[in-house]
Predict the structure.
Amino acid sequence: MANSEKTAAVAEIAEEFRGSTAAVLTEYRGLTVSQLTELRRALGETTRYAVVKNTLTKIAAAQAGVSGIDDLLVGPTAVAFVGGDPVEAAKGLRDFARANPALVVKGGVVEGKALNADEIRKLADLESREVLLAKLAGAMNGSLAKAAGLFAAPLSQVARLAEALRAQREETAGAEPVSVDA
C-alpha cells in the first residue's frame, strides 16, 4: 500500500471514529463474504461495518481522540462504526454472533468510553433508547397524575365538609326546638 493510500485510509477511519456515537471491534475470522454482507444488513443503515488494518486503525483512533482500544487491535479486525443508537447495533452484533459463532466481539468505544466485550453484551441487553424514553415518560405521567390527585384531595375534603355543615345547618334550622321542662 502506497504512503498516500495509507494516509487516506487513516483519514477515512479517523473521520468514521469522529462521526460515530460508538465503535465496536470484532474478529471476523471464519466468516464468508456472504455472511459479512448479511451482517452489514443486520446492523442497519446507520452502522457501517468495515474490515480495517490494525496499525492504521491505531493511528486513526489516536488522531480522532479515541483511546482504550489499542489492546483490541490484534488479529483480523473489523469495526462497526455506529451512527445511530449503540444499543441497536450491539443487539444486531449479538444476534448475528449467536447464529454465527465465528464473529467474536472484542470490545469497543461508546461515546468516548472504552468498553470490553462483556460490557458490549450488557449494552445489547438494554432496551432501545426509544423504549426507555417511553417508559420514563409513562412513569413521569403517572407521578404527575398522583401529585395532582394529592393536591386536589384537601380541596375536595374541604368541599365535602362545607356541604355536610350546610346540610346539618338546614336540618337543625328546620327542626322544632326542643324544650326542657324543669
In short: The CA atoms of residues 5 and 180 lie 116 Å apart. The radius of gyration is 32 Å. The longest helix spans residues 129-174. The mean pLDDT is 84.
